[in-house]
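Good day; I would like, with your permission, to put a structural problem before you. A protein sequence and the structure tokens that stand for its backbone fold form the material at issue. The record follows directly beneath this note:
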Amino acid sequence: MPEANDQSTNPAASSPTPQAARSSAPPSSPRDAAIDEAMETALANPSQRYASSELPLKRQWDSDLDAELEAAMSGFDPKTFDVASPRAKRPERPPVAKGDRGQERSQGQAPRMGRVISVRGRSLFIDLGGKSEGVVPLDLFEGEIPAPGTDIEVVVDHFDRSEGIVHLRLKGSAIEANWENLKQGAIVEAKVTKTIKGGVEVDVDGIRGFMPISQIDLNRVEDAASFVNQKFRAIVTEANAREKNLVVSRRELLEQERAEMREKTWATLEEGQIREGVVRSVKDFGAFVDVGGVDGLLPIGEMSWVRVSKVEDVIRPGDKVTVKILRIDQVTRKLTFGLKQLLQSPWENVEETYPRGAMVKGKVTKLMEFGAFVELEPGVEGLIHITELSPTRVRRITDIVKPDQEVEVRILKVEPDVKRISLSLLPVKGQEAVEEDEEDETPPAPKPERKIPLKGGLGDRDKKPL
């Protein structure tokens, strides 16, 4: 019994030790024994466990690698080797998606200058500089093919990795359209197939599209049927492959070309130049003529030496004309053209044709409050002042002359520099007095002898002597 009490009062004696438990446990395999030993070691030294966790594994690896590298590089002298100079880094090109080929606006590819090398097959090889070459299809050239050595403006279309060739195209040329590269701003070739409500239907490389009637030309188009079966370049303004919706504009492309041409033309314009132009529009006061992308005004008074009552009688929209630059306003960028300056002026020999004091015939063309204009010949007019219409006071000019009336006038004064002739309907001064004197010198006609005696007596003959 005492032994039992001792066991109950001493717990340490009652709990078996690990060694005792391990000895009392059934025998284990060598693997399990190694695991148990490792766990006991880790639990017996907790401070060592935390110290090892403070050093990251990566830093341990770096230290080992540095030691190995230092051992391998021991005794190496870099001065004994010739190291090449670092190669200049080439500018990175933005990746061009397959569907965005030919889109210089969307990709920001500006046109660049290239020099023609040679013609091989159906391609024109171009030197782009920097040991870079490209090819342009000959089909893009409408006229004569540039000779070798000629500089032309091209745009990079895409790079063919299979052939290792840079494909180029001319600036403003159309792309081979498909739904992958039909983006806003792309230039395509469109053929008008038929007219529909609001515009025309076009065919773009087999893709059906629409062009509004307001986007066909720069000027207003009244009849779109005249454009059927015509081919021209246009700009894509809207493209939706999912909805198969394609809208193009020719007017926007023409406006871009005119803007580029306008800047080039302004740099070469000078007063007195003679230019070829096209009449864009006609107004009551004149016509607007396009010369190389620059619009100028041709006033109605500068169209002909003959008085023009209606502009359409001389020129019409679309007519090609040759004009002379009269005035240039660089501030407002306005031009004034002349057409009659290219014709012989009827005022060149007007002093010999109409000497002072000569009596000539003409036709009244216009009545004003201060007088009447008389046309002596086409392009030459003179003015009869109101004081030269009649010797008496004139209240209304229409009381003396009327439009289209044939009159005989006297030349008072000729001023060819200002293109002015003064006329008169009055006779020459002194002519009336001379005519009166001539009438006085003429003897009066004799009075007829009276055959019937006067009534009331015979006078002295009736007297009788007393």
Observations:
- The longest strand covers residues 151-160.
- The chain has a mean pLDDT of 76.
- The longest helix spans residues 250-266.
